[in-house]
Please model this.
Amino acid sequence: MRLILLGPPGAGKGTQAARLVAKHGIPQLSTGDMLRAAVAAGTPIGLKAKAVMEAGGLVSDEIVIGIISDRINEADAARGFILDGFPRTVAQAVALDTMLGEKQMKLRAVVELRVDQSKLVDRIIKRAEEARAAGQPVRKDDDPDVFKTRLEAYNRDTAVVAPYYDKRGQLTVIDGMKPVDDVTAAIEAALG
Model:
């Protein structure tokens, strides 16, 4: 099962990805984690990324796709994977499609957790309060001002990815405002 989870920050992608990982035994792939691992391992693509980062640049889509390509060849991804937070642009979506096509792989689903963005700030504040009450650290991105900046960036840069997959007939929209268990059930139903 190869799956992309889309949606703005705070939509519940991380929560749902964790549940999918537990149920299906496939890895959740974070581009940031993969990038750091490739650099640490000194892979050819990791060395390219390290050179760009040390020069203060942004890692190109070509390098990120190369890192994903290497990562999905690993044994734990043989049964599938979940991409959460990637692709972030239509150019990345096109590059991902091309790379998967070269490997003769297809996405099983692209799931967008659609949420009422006006209610997301309240959700984030509640999440931070619950973490504090449980004695857990509060995520840095759960600060309302930081969150609003991330949401603006999502709407400016990433929200266009869902229509790209919708036009290709690959998008399933799930109501991300429902209770967590209901969202999980809707994703499982969409995966068939």
Q: What stands out?
A: The chain has one domain: 2-26+79-191. The first helix runs from residue 13 to 24.
